[in-house]
């Protein structure tokens, strides 16, 4: 016989409600688990990327590689420099002083010519006034004299009286004679090609 009393109906209702509640709670738990797992994975991946520091390390490395620090002030000398090594004077433009003027050769004392900021650096390194007067500085640390052959038809850019506005280009033979008569000697630049002097240019100084 079935129980049709209000008490029996009430018990049936309680059983149905409890079953629905358990089922509903289980569904919510599954939903939370399903949605929280991808978010956790995404956050973890992003955190790992942010803490690698790869971009910072690359930038720092690149900046360091492009920094150049001179190690020898002679490298700041004008022209082709003043440290060509122990052999013959190579092709280039070299500053120094002509010691002897022969018919087919000259004896040359190589020196370093610095100008502007380079002159200030070199003069300070040598314990001289820096910046130097007139913005140039000459260093001559070697007593070696080089004998150089003259190419045929060599010309000389020449200041006959020391006036920077009075400059002439003359043949080497004429210059060799006139420079003795002038009574003083300027430093010169030699243009060397295939081991021979092809042009001589006096360096005017105040």
Strand-helix topology:
Elements: H1 6-50, H2 54-65, E1 92-101, E2 105-110, E3 112-115, H3 117-125, E4 136-139, E5 146-158, E6 168-171, H4 172-182, E7 188-193, E8 196-202
Parallel strand pairs: 5-8
Antiparallel strand pairs: 1-2, 1-7, 2-5, 3-4, 5-6, 7-8
Question: Describe it for me?
Answer:
There is one protein chain. By secondary structure, the chain is an alpha+beta fold. The protein has 2 domains: 6-65; 74-202, no CATH class. Helices cover 37% and strands 26% of the residues. The strands form 2 sheets. The chain has a 5-stranded mixed barrel. A two-stranded antiparallel ribbon has the order 3-4. Strand 1 and strand 2 (105-110) form a beta hairpin. The longest helix has 45 residues, at 6-50. It is globular and about 40 Å long. The protein starts with 5 loop residues before the first helix and ends with a strand. The model is unreliable at 1-69 (pLDDT under 50).
Describe this structure in a few short sentences:
The protein is α+β, with helices and mostly antiparallel strands and 206 residues long.
Helix count equals 4
User: Distance N terminus to C terminus?
Assistant: 135 Å
Helix/strand structural class:
alpha+beta
* Rg over CA atoms: 44 Å
Strand content: 25-35%
For the secondary structure, the number of strands is 8
Summed over residues and divided by their number, the pLDDT gives a mean of 76
- Strands of the widest sheet, in order across it, are 1-2-5-8-7
pLDDT < 50 stretches:
1-69
